[in-house]
């Protein structure tokens, strides 16, 4: 940069002069700065609008499905006994509810002890033992606690809480209060001593519970009984009892798992049976219209998602399936492959017929030849020579085989191999259209054939077909993880039984009197004997499994041992640990160190009856068939009623909320599109801002910002797409509906407020001053025919969702889920930054140039002035 002197000799305002001289450059730079600022504001405007459009797009996604409108409301005859919420799947009508029993948490109130504060120690209570080992058991989980004579009441509380209980010591009443954190039998707890010192410590703490003391001096719920029952006269006998209990536990759990699996299959088979019969009926109807369609459809069903790209060809009474491969024939035609029953592969080539615009199919032959490839992968004409093809000749070059890697290397004149020039030998498979092959006829696109058959069905049949096929395929594809395939109630066995019944056969293949749907229904219902029906069998097996599970739970103490591999070191260690526990429990049982004053309330499951069916659980909350029930108090044998109906107001509000969000966005778009022109207003420079007040600057910039999207073609395109979707009609049951069919319309240009001509209003909406006085056609339609309203709204939402989605697709100019050209704007912004920097450099260079000139002038004038002063001195 040149040294800048500001008129020291000349007296000129050099800065102002230079600034004026480079003003044309400065003007250009400011022009780009203003354009960049305007672009930045435009980006901000689009970002804000895009966020709102994307929010609408996301919110209407769920409105495309019936579950969004299938709203229910419910009332309870006695809200002091229960509260009930209805989900979309809850059936309409009145149901009966009895609350037989409320769930309770296990609760213990300890006996009074002599601990004056939370800091009192076990020793101060008279405990003189060593390490006191305790066990806290909740359901299947057991946690160990170790206390000592120095442990305080606070320490005890802390350890009990760490073990998963709620615990407190009240120094006023000098006793412990302990409870489960959750309700239910499975969450109840016991606290026992693992050794003599542990039992003594519990006794000192006043929480050694053994039930009520009997007249015989024993305790009704001795917590050590379960372990002590396995005690024998010797350790060997005790181990034998333990292992017998393990065997019993394993048998019970294995049988329970088997019966549960059988019950599940039987229940699923009921739905499968009816679906299978429905599907066969549809097949028969298809065949009546066009023989062979059912066989074709069955094949196409098996192909499933692989129908795309597959071909089928009639072969006698059956069909061959050709699947598309990545292979081509020697002319580049795509190959399709068919594997016959002997596992042999057959190929056909798809040859485009350019004259007719169709595709012809020809059989191809598969052949293998030896290929010779150079280091670059190029195929060569090579001739094998020598014994065992040890050399290859390519023109006048000789390549010799290297036995180590099987490649042939170029032989140099000195007899050595050139490792950079080699030939690889491989077997190449080629496919050629057979000589004299004729175009195969009867080839069909699998997906097109499927669509043709499906389209031949009426709407009701198509709906039944979809549901029945999904059910049949789901059951037949399900796998038995517990049952063997030969089990009477395995998926394979039940599938065969139902299919045999439909075909008029018994399980052994013999002929039965009836066939078809009636035979299947008889099989499922039990052929006149209700107990043989699938549902009753399933229920009986489930009850038996539940009994086994409960019985196994009674011997839960061997559960950990049963999980170990017998004869392993882990099994031996666990067996010895359990042996010690049994021996200790036997000793503690006889010692009977229990506090008679301690009280324990057992954990309790809740029990309700809904429509006469019993349900139990470890909490007071139930979710049954779309109802969420919260039990509050027992009703005894009296029943309360639950009434469920369609929430018409909820459906109305759903539609209204959707329109409100749409209106807010379309009104904003309309306002932005119709904004007044900013005219000659441009973003202000810093110098211009210095001459204006903050209020004036804000007003100036708002004028520009409000006009940024005025008549924007992209904005107009998005608005048009959204408006077109909202104006679309929907055909339901042969009748066309639009928003106006339900009293929803715009006010028109003459009646609407400014920039609100595209907004929709609901006739009779009490919140809308424009239409509140009109007849509420929407609510009337929801009350009279809610299904039609829901179907219409689903399709309308789908149309709008698709319209917005199409505008949000990613392109070279815009990102995904973006309605404006954000990529293009980002590039333009970067280009402006680059251009502005270039002009800043030009200005700096030009200023340096002029300042340099002025510096030279100032220097010359200084010399001149000095000379003049010197001359003047001679005359003074």
UniProtKB/TrEMBL annotation:
<dbReference type="GO" id="GO:0009421">
    <property type="term" value="C:bacterial-type flagellum filament cap"/>
</dbReference>
<dbReference type="InterPro" id="IPR040026">
    <property type="entry name" value="FliD"/>
</dbReference>
<feature type="domain" description="Flagellar hook-associated protein 2 C-terminal">
    <location>
        <begin position="603"/>
        <end position="866"/>
    </location>
</feature>
<dbReference type="GO" id="GO:0005576">
    <property type="term" value="C:extracellular region"/>
</dbReference>
<keyword id="KW-0964">Secreted</keyword>
<dbReference type="GO" id="GO:0071973">
    <property type="term" value="P:bacterial-type flagellum-dependent cell motility"/>
</dbReference>
<dbReference type="GO" id="GO:0009424">
    <property type="term" value="C:bacterial-type flagellum hook"/>
</dbReference>
<keyword id="KW-0966">Cell projection</keyword>
<keyword id="KW-0969">Cilium</keyword>
<keyword id="KW-0282">Flagellum</keyword>
<dbReference type="InterPro" id="IPR003481">
    <property type="entry name" value="FliD_N"/>
</dbReference>
<comment type="function">
    <text>Required for morphogenesis and for the elongation of the flagellar filament by facilitating polymerization of the flagellin monomers at the tip of growing filament. Forms a capping structure, which prevents flagellin subunits (transported through the central channel of the flagellum) from leaking out without polymerization at the distal end.</text>
</comment>
<dbReference type="Pfam" id="PF02465">
    <property type="entry name" value="FliD_N"/>
</dbReference>
<keyword id="KW-0975">Bacterial flagellum</keyword>
<dbReference type="InterPro" id="IPR010809">
    <property type="entry name" value="FliD_C"/>
</dbReference>
<dbReference type="Pfam" id="PF07195">
    <property type="entry name" value="FliD_C"/>
</dbReference>
<comment type="subunit">
    <text>Homopentamer.</text>
</comment>
<comment type="similarity">
    <text>Belongs to the FliD family.</text>
</comment>
<dbReference type="GO" id="GO:0007155">
    <property type="term" value="P:cell adhesion"/>
</dbReference>
<feature type="domain" description="Flagellar hook-associated protein 2 N-terminal">
    <location>
        <begin position="10"/>
        <end position="105"/>
    </location>
</feature>
<protein>
    <recommendedName>
        <fullName>Flagellar hook-associated protein 2</fullName>
    </recommendedName>
</protein>
<keyword id="KW-0175">Coiled coil</keyword>
């Amino acid at each position: 940069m040149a040294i800048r002197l500001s008129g020291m000799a000349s007296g000129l305002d050099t800065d102002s002069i230079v600034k004026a001289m480079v003003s044309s450059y400065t003007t250009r730079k400011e022009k780009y700065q203003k354009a960049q600022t305007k672009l930045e504001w435009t980006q901000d405007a689009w970002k804000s609008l895009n966020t709102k459009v994307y929010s609408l797009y996301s919110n209407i996604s769920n409105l495309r499905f019936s579950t969004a409108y299938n709203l229910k409301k419910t009332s309870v005859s006695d809200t002091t006994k229960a509260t009930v919420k209805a989900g979309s799947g809850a059936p309409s009508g009145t149901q009966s509810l009895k609350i037989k029993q409320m769930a309770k948490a296990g609760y213990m109130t300890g006996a009074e002890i002599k601990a004056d504060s939370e800091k009192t120690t076990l020793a101060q209570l008279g405990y003189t033992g060593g390490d006191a080992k305790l066990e806290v058991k909740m359901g299947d989980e057991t946690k160990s606690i170790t206390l000592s004579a120095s442990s305080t009441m606070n320490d005890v509380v802390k350890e009990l809480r760490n073990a998963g209980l709620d615990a407190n010591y009240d120094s006023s009443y000098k006793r412990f209060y302990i409870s489960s954190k959750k309700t239910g039998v499975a969450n109840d707890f016991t606290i026992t001593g693992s050794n003599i010192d542990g039992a003594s410590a519990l006794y000192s703490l006043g929480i050694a519970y053994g039930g009520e003391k009997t007249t015989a001096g024993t305790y009704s719920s001795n917590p050590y009984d379960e372990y002590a029952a396995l005690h024998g006269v010797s350790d060997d006998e005790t181990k034998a009892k333990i292992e017998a209990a393990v065997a019993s536990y394993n048998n019970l759990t294995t049988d329970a798992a088997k019966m549960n699996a059988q019950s599940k299959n039987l229940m699923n088979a009921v739905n499968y049976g009816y679906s299978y019969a429905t599907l066969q009926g549809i097949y028969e109807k298809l065949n009546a219209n066009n023989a062979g369609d059912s066989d074709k459809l069955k094949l196409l069903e098996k192909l499933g998602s692989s129908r795309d790209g597959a071909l089928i060809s009639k072969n006698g009474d059956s069909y061959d399936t050709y699947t598309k491969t990545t292979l081509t024939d020697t002319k580049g035609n795509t190959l399709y492959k068919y594997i016959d029953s002997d596992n042999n592969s057959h190929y056909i080539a798809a040859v485009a017929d350019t004259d007719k615009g169709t595709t012809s199919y020809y059989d191809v032959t598969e052949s293998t030849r030896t290929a010779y490839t150079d280091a670059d992968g190029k195929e060569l004409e090579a001739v094998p020579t020598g014994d065992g093809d040890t050399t290859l000749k390519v023109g006048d070059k000789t390549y010799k085989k290297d036995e180590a890697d099987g490649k042939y290397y170029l032989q140099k004149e000195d007899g050595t191999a050139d490792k950079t020039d080699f030939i690889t030998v491989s077997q190449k498979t080629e496919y050629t259209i057979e000589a004299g092959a004729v175009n195969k006829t009867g080839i069909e696109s699998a997906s097109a054939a499927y669509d043709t058959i499906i389209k031949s069905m009426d709407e009701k049949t198509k709906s039944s077909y979809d549901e029945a096929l999904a059910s049949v395929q789901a059951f037949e594809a399900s796998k038995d993880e517990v049952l063997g395939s030969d089990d009477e109630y395995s998926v394979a066995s039940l599938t065969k039984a139902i299919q045999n019944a439909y075909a008029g056969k018994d399980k052994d293949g013999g002929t039965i009197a009836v066939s078809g749907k009636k035979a299947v229904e008889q099989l499922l219902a039990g052929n006149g004997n209700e107990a043989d029906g699938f549902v009753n069998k399933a229920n009986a097996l489930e009850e038996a499994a539940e009994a086994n599970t409960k019985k196994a739970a009674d011997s839960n103490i061997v559960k950990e041992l049963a999980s170990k591999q017998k004869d392993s070191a882990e099994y031996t260690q666990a067996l010895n640990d359990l042996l010690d526990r049994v021996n200790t429990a036997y000793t503690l049982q006889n010692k009977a160190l229990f506090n008679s004053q301690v009280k324990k309330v057992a954990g309790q499951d809740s029990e309700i009856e809904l429509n006469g069916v019993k349900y139990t659980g470890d909490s007071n909350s139930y979710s049954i068939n779309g109802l969420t029930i919260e039990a509050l108090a027992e009703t005894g044998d009296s029943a309360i009623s639950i009434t469920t109906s369609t929430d018409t107001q909820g459906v109305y509000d759903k539609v209204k909320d959707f329109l409100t969000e749409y209106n807010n966005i379309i009104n904003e778009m309309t306002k932005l599109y119709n904004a007044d022109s900013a005219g000659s207003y441009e973003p202000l420079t810093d110098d211009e801002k210095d001459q204006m007040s903050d209020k004036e600057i804000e007003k100036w910039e708002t004028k520009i910002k409000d006009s940024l999207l005025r008549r924007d073609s992209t904005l107009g395109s998005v608005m048009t797409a959204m408006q077109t979707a909202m104006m679309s009609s929907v055909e339901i049951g042969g009748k066309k509906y639009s928003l106006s069919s339900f009293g929803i319309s715009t006010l028109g240009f003459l009646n609407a407020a400014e920039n609100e001509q595209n907004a929709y209003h609901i006739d009779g909406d009490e919140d809308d001053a424009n239409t509140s006085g009109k007849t509420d056609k929407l609510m009337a339609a929801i009350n009279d025919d809610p299904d039609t309203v829901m179907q219409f709204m689903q399709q309308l939402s789908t149309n709008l969702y698709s319209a917005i989605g199409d505008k949000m697709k990613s392109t070279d100019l815009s990102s995904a889920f973006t309605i404006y050209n954000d990529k293009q704007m980002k590039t333009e912004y970067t280009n402006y930054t680059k251009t502005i920097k270039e002009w800043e450099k030009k200005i700096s260079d030009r200023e340096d140039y002029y300042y340099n000139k002025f510096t030279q002038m100032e220097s010359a004038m200084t010399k001149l002035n000095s000379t003049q002063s010197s001359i003047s001195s001679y005359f003074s």
